[in-house]
Design goal:
With 66 residues, the protein is α+β, with helices and mostly antiparallel strands. The chain has one domain. It is built from one helix and three strands; from the N terminus they run E-E-E-H. Strands 1-2-3 form a three-stranded antiparallel β-sheet. Strand 1 and strand 2 form a beta hairpin. The chain is globular and about 35 Å long.
């Protein structure tokens, strides 16, 4: 994760998340695409079951800090 993503990267100012959706794979129910809409466009990330579980834990911890 220390390697930067090739392509357009906005490092100085964070992107605001406007909306998220998940499109499940028709072949594998524990795989799909996580779409994160930002003011710069849509970021599409392939996601599997383990990554989704990790993300859920992180988001739950984030919300618990409110």
């Amino acid at each position: 994760m220390s390697k930067p993503i090739q392509g357009y990267v906005r490092a100085d100012v964070p992107l605001n998340v406007l909306e998220t959706t998940v499109q499940k794979s028709s072949i594998n129910p524990l795989a799909g695409v996580l779409e994160i809409a930002t003011e710069d466009g849509v970021l599409r990330l392939a996601i599997g079951g383990d990554a989704a579980k990790d993300l859920l834990i992180d988001l739950d911890q984030f919300l618990a800090q409110e």
